[in-house]
Amino acid sequence: MRKLFILILCLTFLSGCMGIVRTTTTTFHGKGHEQRGSIFVAAADAQVNGSLEFSHYKQLVEEKLITIGYTLSPTAEKADFIALVAYGIDNGKTSIVSTPIFGQTGGGTTYSSGSVYGYGGSASYSGTSYTMPTYGIVGSSTSSQTEYTRAIALDIVDAKSIESGKPEKLYEMRARSTGSCSSINGVFDEILEAMFKSFPGDSGKSQTIEVPWDGSC
């Protein structure tokens, strides 16, 4: 029982130092999705294309696209394909969480003393006894916990089809993650990693992927 208690403490300690980002991803394949060529990454919301934040995300997406066979185009006009990226995070949902407190529930060293009376008078005694300690739940504590839903969407579109006014998508990639980090920047890399973990996967089939996270948010 003591070993079990120590193991629980160790796991609790480690969980505070390590983390994961759990993401559910879904990829849909369009006609001709096996094609590769030059690609240009742009924000789905044109207003953020010039932001420093998007520039950071754009570089991360470009690195992933290179690993699956695309080459980068310096401009959208020269690209064979356009990758449109959208991302966001909600305001969070707060809940009350009860956490058990583990401790010693019995056993250990017991001290005793007293007096013994008899026909011949009285005598004092003292001593100790030891029994194997037991461990278990000795109480609980409550705390509030807020979880945020973070999402990334990535569409790869044939560039010529955009010019014709009838965009043809080769891929629709969707990723959704829920966790304690309230900043999309803090987990963007991990969610993106999950999106490309088994690319392209089965069209329309969702999968949940866990990616190690250092806890920085």
Gist?
The protein is 23% helix and 51% strand. α2 runs parallel beside α4.
Describe the secondary structure blueprint for this structure.
Blueprint: H1 2-17, E1 19-29, E2 38-43, H2 52-67, E3 71-72, E4 81-89, E5 93-118, E6 121-158, H3 159-163, E7 169-179, H4 184-195, E8 207-213
Parallel strand pairs: 2-3, 2-4
Antiparallel strand pairs: 1-7, 1-8, 4-6, 5-6, 6-7
Helix pairs in contact: 2-4
* DSSP summary: helix tally: 4
How many strands? Answer: 8
Shape: rod-shaped
Biggest β-sheet: count, sense, barrel?
8 strands, mixed
Radius of gyration, in Å, reads 30 Å
Average pLDDT value?
A: 86
- What share of residues are in beta strands? over 45%
Order of helices and strands: HEEHEEEEHEHE
Structural class: alpha+beta
CATH topology of the largest domain: Double Stranded RNA Binding Domain
CATH class of the largest domain: Alpha Beta
What's the end-to-end separation, in Å?
Answer: 37 Å
In helices, the fraction of residues equals 10-25%
InterPro entries: DUF4136
Keywords: Signal
Protein name: DUF4136 domain-containing protein
